[in-house]
Design brief:
There is one protein chain. The chain is built from no helices and eleven strands. It has 118 residues and is an all-beta fold. β4 and β5 form a beta hairpin.
Amino acid sequence: QVDLVESGGGLVQTGGSLKLSCIAGGRTVVNIKRFAWYRQAPGKQRELVAGVSNRETDYHDSVKGRFTISRNSALNTVYLQMDDLKPEDTAVYYCAASENFSSWSTYWGQGTQVTVSS
C-alpha cells in the first residue's frame, strides 16, 4: 500500500510558475518504479502530464519545454515544476505511482488545484 500526498497548488497569473510536490509513504513505498502527474480540468478526461522512472521521462506535448518532473528517491518525493503557465493549465493535478513499468498509475493522491488567471 502506498499513500501519496500532494502540495503546492494555488492561484497564479498567466506566465507565472508553481512547483508541486508529492510525498509517498506506506508499507510498499520502496517498490515504486514510476511516478507521474496527471491533471483533470472541468468537463475533461484525466490526462497524463508527466511521468518519471529510472528508465524514462515523458511529457504531454502541451507541457513540453514548460514543465519539469523530477524525483528525489531518498525522500520518496516527486516534483512538478511548472513554468510559463497558461489558463489552459488550470486543473486539479494528481500525483500517481506504480510498482511496475506497465502502468503510470496504481496509486493516486487526493489532488491539488492549480488555477491560472488570464
